[in-house]
Design a protein that fits this description.
Structural class: mainly alpha
Distance between the termini: 37 Å
Order of helices and strands: HHHHHHHHHHHHHHHHHHHHH
Shape: globular
C-alpha cells in the first residue's frame, strides 16, 4: 500500500475515535437529566434489572459459541481470521449492550422531561438513540481500520470480523425479538383484550416484561443488527475494490463511512420541535435531520474524491462519487416508501383501521398493505444496482454496487438514532402510565411512541434494502474467490441451490414465528394464572408478580433462539461442502431474492398494523374499547412478530449466509458430491 492509502485509513480511524468520544460525552449528558420521582425510579429499576439479566444470560450462551468458533478457526485457518472473528463478535455485542444500558436509563428521564415539554422529551429520547447510532458506526470503523492496518491490507483476514458481527447480530436479534414479542403479545391479549385494562397498566403482570423486551429486542438487537450491516458493507466494498478493481480503491469505503459519522453528528443537531407539534411535524423533524446528513455526506464525499484524484484519476474518482450519491438517494427513497406505508397519517395504514369492522378483514388488509409495500423498495434497489453498475463502469463491476451500499449506510449514525429512540419513548409512556403522571405527559410520550413506530419501520426498511446490496456484493466477492466463471440456470447444481435458497427465509421465518407463539402462550397462561389466583390485582390492592413473566420470557427466548440462528450458519456450509461452490452460489441468490421480499412485507405489515391501532386510539372509529380497537389489537399482536422478530431477522440471515460462504470459500473445493 502507498503512504496516501495509509494516511486515509488513519484519518478514518481518527474519525471513529472522535465518534467514541462523542458517545461518552453524550452518555454523560443524557444520564445527567432528572430521573423523576421515587415511583418512576422504582419502575425503571425493575426494567433495568430485567434487561440486564436477559443480556447476561444471553451473552453467556453466546460466549460459548464464540469460544468454540474462535478455537476452530484458529486450528483450521489462520490466527488472523480467528482474531478478527473474536473482535467482530465482541464489538458487536458491546455496541448492543452499550445502547441498551443507556436506553433503560433514558426511558425514565424521557418521562420526566416530557412532564416539562414535548421538545424536552424528544431531545432526551433522541439523545439516547444517538448514543446507540454513533456507538455502532464508531465501534465498527475503529475495529475494521485497526485490523486493516494491523494486517497490512489483507482483507481476507478482516472478512472474519463480519462473520463475528453477523453471528452475534442474528442471535441477539432472534433472541431479543422472541423475548419482546412474547411479552408484548401476552400482555396485550390478556390485559387489553380479556381484562379490558389500558396498555402499560401496572395491574398487568406482563407489563415489566413488555418494557424489558423493548430494550433487549429493539435496542440491543437492532444495534447488533445494524452493526453487522455497516461492517459488512465496508468489508464487501473493500474486498471487491482489492480483488476486482485496484488496491488504491480499498480506501474509499472507509473514507465514505467515516465521513458519514461526521455528517450524522451534524444532522443530529437539527432535532428539536415545538410543543404543539403533531405527528407530521414530529416526523418532519427527524426527516430533516436525515436528509441534511445525506446532503452532508454527498458534500464531504466530493471533497474526499477530489483528494483521491492523485490516486484514482479524475474520471474514475467522480464516477465513484456518483455511485455513493446513488446509494444515498436509494436509501432515502426506501425510507420514504416505508414511512408512507406505515405512518398512520397515510392512506395505507388508515385503510387498515377502516377495515377493522371485523378482525379478519383488518388482518387481510394488513397483509395486502405489506405485500404492496414490497414493490417500490424492490424497484428502487433494482434501479440502484443498474445505475451504480452503469455509472461505475465495466471495470468496477460489482464494486460499484458495494460502494452504493456503503453510501446507503453512511448516514447510519442518525438513521439508527431515529430508530433506537422509539423504544425509549415507548418505555417512557409505560413509566408515565404506571407511575400515575398527569394525562398530558402520557399524551406527549404517546406522540413520541407513535412516531417511533414509523421511524422503527423506516429503519428496518433501510436495513433490509442495504442488506440486499451488501449481500450481493459479498456474493460477488465469494464468486471471485471460488473462481466461478460460467452459470447454467438449468444445471443439476445451480437450480437445486436456487430452490433451497428461496425456501430458507420461509423456513427461518416460520421457526421464529412459531417460537414467538410458543413463548407468548407461556406468558398468556402465567398472566391468566395471576389474575385468577392472586386476589386484589384488579382492585390495585396487591402488585402482580412481574419477575415471573420476565423469567418466563428470558428462558423461552434463549431456548428458542438457538435453532433458527444455527440454520443460517449451517445451511451454506452444508451446501458448499457437500454440493460445491456453484450450488452454494445458487442458494445465496435464492435466499437474497426471497428474503428481501419476505422481510419487507413482514416488517411493513407489522408496522402498519401497529399504527392502525394507534390511529384508532386517537379517537377514530370509536377509539379505545370499540370493536374496531379490539380488532386492531389482535392485528397488532399478529404483526408484532412480523415486524420485530421474523422480518428484521431475515436481513441478517441473508448477510450471514453470504459472509459465511466468503469466509470458508477457500476450503470448500468442488464439494463431496463433485456435481460441477
Amino acid at each position: 500500500m502507498e503512504l496516501n492509502d495509509f494516511s486515509l485509513i488513519w484519518a478514518a480511524l481518527g474519525i471513529g475515535v472522535l465518534g467514541i468520544i462523542f458517545v461518552l460525552l453524550k452518555m454523560r449528558q443524557v444520564l445527567a437529566f432528572d430521573a423523576g420521582n421515587a415511583t418512576m425510579r422504582e419502575i425503571a429499576s425493575a426494567i433495568q434489572a430485567g434487561a440486564a439479566g436477559f443480556l447476561r444470560d444471553e451473552y453467556r450462551i453466546l460466549a460459548i459459541f464464540v469460544a468454540v468458533v474462535t478455537v476452530a478457526m484458529f486450528l483450521l485457518m489462520q490466527w488472523q481470521s480467528a482474531a478478527s472473528f473474536l473482535l467482530g463478535a465482541v464489538t458487536s455485542a458491546g455496541a448492543g449492550y452499550l445502547g441498551m444500558y443507556v436506553a433503560v436509563r433514558a426511558n425514565v428521564r424521557t418521562a420526566a422531561a416530557s412532564s416539562r415539554s414535548l421538545n424536552a422529551g424528544l431531545r432526551v429520547a433522541f439523545g439516547s438513540g444517538s448514543i446507540m447510532g454513533m456507538s455502532v458506526v464508531s465501534f465498527s470503523i475503529v475495529g475494521l481500520t485497526l485490523l486493516y492496518i494491523l494486517f497490512d491490507g489483507q482483507i481476507a483476514y478482516v472478512t472474519s470480523f463480519g462473520f463475528g458481527a453477523s453471528s452475534i447480530a442474528l442471535f441477539a436479534r432472534v433472541g431479543g425479538g422472541i423475548f419482546t414479542k412474547a411479552a408484548d403479545v401476552g400482555a396485550d391479549l390478556v390485559g387489553k383484550v380479556e381484562q379490558g385494562i389500558p396498555e402499560d397498566d401496572p395491574r398487568n403482570p406482563a407489563v415489566i416484561a413488555d418494557n424489558v423486551g423493548d430494550n433487549v429486542g429493539d435496542v440491543a438487537g437492532m444495534g447488533a443488527d445494524l452493526f453487522e450491516s455497516f461492517s459488512g458493507s465496508i468489508i464487501a466494498a473493500t474486498t471487491l475494490g482489492l480483488v476486482a478493481v485496484n488496491p488504491e480503491t480499498a480506501v474509499l469505503p472507509f473514507i465514505v463511512a467515516g465521513l458519514g459519522i461526521v455528517a450524522a453528528f451534524l444532522g443530529s443537531l437539527l432535532v428539536r420541535t415545538r410543543e404543539d407539534a403533531d405527528q407530521e411535524a414530529l416526523l418532519a423533524t427527524l426527516s430533516r435531520a436525515i436528509y441534511a446528513s445525506s446532503g452532508l455526506v454527498a458534500l464531504f464525499a466530493a471533497g474526499a474524491i477530489a483528494a483521491l484524484n492523485n490516486i484514482l484519476g479524475w474520471d474514475i474518482a467522480w464516477r465513484y462519487w456518483w455511485v455513493v450519491v446513488i446509494g444515498l438517494v436509494a436509501g432515502n427513497l426506501i425510507g420514504w416508501f416505508t414511512e408512507y406505508y406505515t405512518s398512520y397519517t397515510r392512506r395505507p395504514t388508515q385503510g387498515i383501521a377502516e377495515a377493522g369492522s371485523t378482525t379478519a378483514t383488518l388482518i387481510i388488509e394488513g397483509l395486502a398493505v405489506g405485500m404492496n409495500s414490497a414493490v417500490l423498495p424492490v424497484v428502487t434497489v433494482a434501479v440502484a444496482i443498474v445505475a451504480s453498475l452503469t455509472v461505475g463502469g465495466p471495470e468496477a463491476g460489482m464494486f460499484s454496487v458495494a460502494l452504493a451500499g456503503v453510501g446507503m449506510l453512511s448516514t447510519l449514525g442518525i438513521t439508527l438514532a431515529t430508530d433506537a429512540y422509539g423504544p425509549v419513548a415507548d418505555n417512557a409512556g409505560g413509566i408515565a402510565e404506571m407511575s400515575g403522571l398527569p394525562g398530558e405527559v402520557r399524551d406527549r410520550t404517546d406522540a413520541l411512541d407513535s412516531l417511533g413506530n414509523t421511524t422503527a419501520a423506516t429503519g428496518k426498511g433501510f436495513a433490509i434494502g442495504s442488506a440486499v446490496l451488501t449481500a450481493l456484493a459479498l456474493m460477488a466477492a465469494y464468486v471471485s474467490e471460488t473462481g466461478i466463471t460460467e452459470w447454467d440456470l438449468l444445471s443439476p447444481v445451480l437450480l437445486p441451490g436456487l430452490l433451497v435458497g428461496g425456501m430458507l427465509p420461509f423456513f427461518f421465518a416460520a421457526r421464529t414465528m412459531t417460537a414467538v407463539g410458543r413463548s407468548a402462550q407461556s406468558i398468556v397462561e402465567e398472566v391468566r394464572r395471576q389474575f385468577r389466583e392472586i386476589p386484589g390485582i384488579m382492585e390495585r390492592e396487591q402488585k402482580p408478580d412481574y419477575k415471573a413473566c420476565v423469567a418466563i420470557s428470558t428462558r423461552s427466548s434463549l431456548r428458542e433462539m438457538i435453532l433458527p440462528s444455527l440454520i443460517a450458519i449451517a445451511a451454506p456450509l452444508v451446501v458448499g461442502f457437500v454440493m460445491g461452490p456453484e450450488a452454494l452460489a445458487g442458494l445465496l441468490m435464492g435466499a437474497i431474492v426471497s428474503g428481501f421480499l419476505l422481510a419487507v412485507m413482514m416488517a411493513n405489515a407489522g408496522g402498519a398494523w401497529d399504527n392502525a391501532k394507534k390511529w384508532i386510539e386517537t379517537g377514530e372509529y370509536g377509539g379505545k374499547g370499540s370493536d374496531y380497537h379490539k380488532a386492531a389489537v389482535v392485528g397488532d399482536t399478529v404483526g408484532d412478530p412480523f415486524k420485530d422478530t421474523s422480518g428484521p431477522s431475515l436481513n441478517i440471515l441473508i448477510k450471514l449466509m453470504t459472509i459465511v460462504s466468503l469466509v470458508f470459500a477457500g476450503a470448500m473445493g468442488s464439494g463431496l458430491l463433485n456435481l460441477g
